[in-house]
Amino acid sequence: MPAGNGLPLVEHVVVLMLENRSFDHMLGFLYTNSGNVSPAGQPYEGLNGTESNPAATGPAVSVFRIEPTTQNAYFMPGADPGEGYMATNSQLFGSIKGPASPSAVPANDGFVKDFAYTLGWQSKQSGWSILPGTTAGDIMGCFAPDTLPVLSGLARGYAVCDHWYSSVPTETLPNRAFACAGTSQGHMDDKTHTFTSPSIFGLLDAHGLGWAIYGYDAEPLTKSTFTDIARAPASHFGLFTDFTAAAAAGTLPPFTFLEPSWSSTGNSQHPNYNVALGEQFIHDVYQAVRGGPGWPRTLLVITYDEHGGCYDHVPPPSGATPPDQDAGEFGFDFTRFGVRVPTVLVSPLIAAGTVFRAPAGGPPLDHTSILKSVQQRWDLPPLTERDAAAPGFADVLTLAAPRTDDPLAGVTVPVTAGAGPAAGAPSHLQRIQAELISRKFPAGVDPAPDAAAAPHLISADYASYITAHADVRPS
């Protein structure tokens, strides 16, 4: 691959971070039919179709393609797999305990067994939705490219990163903290809802550079997550309609961070929500930036915060740089990366059919590579030791002149019937966001909805509370 020289041409970095899907699950079959070689002749770490995982009883379960005709294709794997630190250890090492050695290479052979365990306890507790007929073997389902024509079309039409890892082997909020701040301050689960470390947003502010965070249909959760932007001017925040307007007007700032809708009927693609809605969201984000005057100078990053318990066959590497001196929960030392997640880089300065990786012999791409690339573009200092050591992705920009073709021309966005098994249930992140927003008020005044005290509460109750009490509201 020729060395890239296009980073100085980029004036707008836009990041769309979706939810809880692994690389193999979404893009493993992208180039299987061509021997896992891209049209540009680059090797691709995809599936060959023979990968499998042992079951608790009976024969091993092989990977299989989720086709558009597969029953309930867009609600696979049918339930919410285990996604915390212990569940991830179980999926990678076959035990909820971390490995004795930080450099231990995982076998990635615990996905079926861990999903069986998760289905077992979820079926006995209220508040969890399981698609009827779901089995432990369904965790080995991976989407065929035709099932995800938008994500797959962009991956083929621009660049796909086949060795991009979540920053830590655990769930959502720690990984989103690494993406925005280069650290989770030692936290390894979603019980911690705010982070006091400096963020990329505060760093940009300090250097006179613009930034924006957009929620889809409600105030962005990120606004309440990082304390250094808690009092940032309202002009930094908005909804997806505000994003599309800014893109159309050519007024996007240097850095934009996009969130999906967090509801159980939203477009986050969190299992077991409707993946087709996420395809529409990706399509709409792409069309918004491509249709604006800033497109020739825009780099769009589409990624997922963590694997969410979905199957991947590539062992996450060790050798990660700990971000700081904060002691890790569960005894974790922050020297292991999390599971591979799908990441696609989109820009008219990227050649079609690119498979992009970090240089061999160094750390792989992970969420802090976003921070590194922004820092490289605008000559900013690192936030932590992790993003200081991270590779950027400037070398993906190899073209001297912007392309004018559209890889999604003629692509039909998939749709699926039915609201899905989780419809109506309040989502995990809706609950967290409502609780964070309620902190603005004195104790006992306008408390957030509490599903523990009122089990009848539904997603709409949380959405109404967030809309009514947030600073950012639909016009």
Written overview of the protein:
By secondary structure, this protein is of the alpha/beta class. It has one domain: 3-Layer(aba) Sandwich (Alkaline Phosphatase, subunit A), CATH 3.40.720.10. The protein contains 13 helices and 14 strands. It has helices at residues 23-27, 85-93, 111-122, 149-157, 172-181, 200-206, 222-225, 240-249, 275-290, 368-378, 385-389, 428-438, 459-469; strands spanning 12-18, 52-53, 61-62, 64-66, 141-143, 159-160, 164-165, 211-214, 237-238, 255-258, 298-304, 344-346, 354-355, 365-366. The strands form 4 sheets. It has an 8-stranded mixed beta sheet. The longest helix has 16 residues, at 275-290.
Structure at a glance:
The protein has about 475 residues and is α/β, with parallel strands linked by helices. Helices cover about 25% and strands about 10% of the residues.
What overall form do the CA principal axes indicate?
A: globular
What integer is the average pLDDT?
95
Order of helices and strands: EHEEEHHEHEEHHEHEHEHEEEEHHHH
**Given this structure, which CATH class is correct?**
Alpha Beta
Keywords:
single chain, 475 residues, alpha/beta, Alkaline Phosphatase, subunit A, eight-stranded mixed β-sheet, two-stranded antiparallel ribbon, 13 helices, 25% helix, 9% strand, globular
Topology:
Layout: E1 12-18, H1 23-27, E2 52-53, E3 61-62, E4 64-66, H2 85-93, H3 111-122, E5 141-143, H4 149-157, E6 159-160, E7 164-165, H5 172-181, H6 200-206, E8 211-214, H7 222-225, E9 237-238, H8 240-249, E10 255-258, H9 275-290, E11 298-304, E12 344-346, E13 354-355, E14 365-366, H10 368-378, H11 385-389, H12 428-438, H13 459-469
Parallel strand pairs: 1-10, 1-11, 4-5, 6-13, 7-14, 8-9, 8-10
Antiparallel strand pairs: 2-3, 6-12, 11-12
